[in-house]
Amino acid sequence: MITKLQVKYIQSLGQKKFRDEEAVFIAEGPRIINELLGAAAITPVSVYATRGWIQENIRAGKSSPSFQVIEIKEAELERLSFLQTPNEVLGIFKKPLYAALDFSNTLSLMLDGIQDPGNLGTIIRIADWFGISNIVCSEDCADAFAPKVVQATMGSIARVKLLYTDLVALAKKTRPLQLYAATLDGQSVHQQQPIKEAVLVTGNESKGISAALLDCCQHRITIPRIGQAESLNAAVATGIILSHIVKR
Amino acid sequence: MITKLQVKYIQSLGQKKFRDEEAVFIAEGPRIINELLGAAAITPVSVYATRGWIQENIRAGKSSPSFQVIEIKEAELERLSFLQTPNEVLGIFKKPLYAALDFSNTLSLMLDGIQDPGNLGTIIRIADWFGISNIVCSEDCADAFAPKVVQATMGSIARVKLLYTDLVALAKKTRPLQLYAATLDGQSVHQQQPIKEAVLVTGNESKGISAALLDCCQHRITIPRIGQAESLNAAVATGIILSHIVKR
Fold this sequence. Notes:
Chain A is α/β, with parallel strands linked by helices. The first copy, chain A, has helices spanning about 5-10, 15-20, 30-35, 50-60, 75-80, 115-130, 145-150, 165-175, 210-215, 235-245; strands at about 25-30, 45-50, 70, 90-95, 105-110, 135, 160-165, 180-190, 200-205, 220. The interface between A and B is large, with 37 and 37 residues.
């Protein structure tokens, strides 16, 4: 059973302003909820779930009940859900916040103005696939804790460290860190050896990397075009470059 | 000025059934419309556009007026548009239909049950980037001529040849063509040399490649996982594998 106040609270978390104020985010569906409940870096606040999900996951002792569990009916879940097809469970989790990231001995990502929630979620999932744990986002990137982004990460949001900051200021502060800009006019990925320590910079879907940030990049890297498409999707380009430069 | 009948006709083309009956598809926005008007393989039927677009593109002689041009007001375009933000022009084009594709001396794609329109559009754009012109879709793939897919291709739909058919039947018929299945348990892309003639097979977003089609694949190819994500997005995986196996 849920109250009107609970419905209103959860719906408000669809807005970045309220997510920031409360420092929480929402995820939905058994698969991602179970990943988040099992993730060391993520603290659950509460879970709204159908009787079936609770019986299978809480009463069966699969998860420790160190958070609030509210049993709701499917019709109630429909009122709460941000999904087209609500799916058994919705959870509220504390946003993992990082004041700084450690860039030494690792490959990291910088995202400059990635606008599309699906692209951002897909990039977080790609980073997790390639074992990259640092993602620095410019302040005008989409919010990684928006419901659409969280769902697109397929649970990977639990395993990457996200920091929103002024990228140019960070790039200047963290020199001599090597920045590799994903551009249309750089060195071919096929000529690039795997890199032990660097930051790959991906730009906005239509405008690319801002001029000020590009100025901070010591290297430019390119996926050679063979056909005629004007560009590649930002997430696809990030995945392709990582597959060539991640140290195996 | 548009009539009620025109509005109704265009709206009906949002449905696959009517697109198939009429053998046409819709695209929107100056960038993609200009690409389609300039594409040899695409025949325009009619264009609904604002006065500004017509003056700049038709009256200025940039495109030959071998198709119907209907001037409409922005408010009228809003009624027609499938986009959240209508953009100057909407065009109706004949669907390029291919009864068969030539797989010799080239790399081709087979898509087995790609469901998400954004993924399908992105894969078409990736194919165009890597100079791949053959894409064979299983009959349960999303429709490549749905408005969302067409927009996601960013114009690349004009440069690839699409065929919807039974993939298993085609694979058996076109032997000894080499089929490379994108799977989680194959040979590493890093050990794979560029390939001159083959078909890369990408499966459904959650179920992968069907067992019957996998049986037809002589090779399996994998992007080595370094981190913990369970899988990669189907379009991203297709892009990464192509970047390693396309002959440069």
